[in-house]
Amino acid sequence: MSRSTITAEKGRAVRAASRPAIAAQAAPATPATHCVGIVTACDGGKLTVTSGTLVASGRRAASCLLVPALGDSVACLLVAPDELWVLSVLQRDDGVPHVLGGIGPMRIEADTLEFECERFSLRTRRAEIASDEAQLVGRELRVIGAVMKLTGSLLSTVFDRVTHFSKNHLRTTEGVDRVQATHLEQEAQQLLRLSGEHALINGEKLVKARGGQIHFG
Question: Going by fewer Cβ within 10 Å, which terminus of the chain is more open, N or C?
Fold first, then answer.
């Protein structure tokens, strides 16, 4: 028998001898059973489920996005006599809100995402929206905020009527500031001041000044 054959036979013998030891070291599979129960208590992230004579506590599984509520019929995975995981909500009474929630940070990825509902409400401490192109269409739009700031390279607005009120209004324009209207009125309760390096007043048909005192120069 050649030396290479003897070496191969020894290798197979060593591997065969080590298999029982490896099998003995491998942990057995964790036993688990399924059950259907009713949520009888909710304390934060801890849930209590009653199924027949079984009363066990557990938590919501990461795949269960619908947050369980009292009275829900739920499908569970029982991993210990008194410990389980709630896999999904099977049935809920009418009138109980449906709340979707993730365990930890959650992100939704899709090619197209649409929401269709009678009323949409978003409450958050901070919101950020980034988009290459955005369009908002609505019959009536209200924006309320203590501080508002708009920054961009171009602003274009088209309205039939604009009403503006502010306690103080300051405007600075580096280039041309032009107002074109059919009828233009400016009224001040105390002082109206027009100042410039060159001031031109042109009335095609009439220029009229009226006051208790009129001073030129």
Answer: C
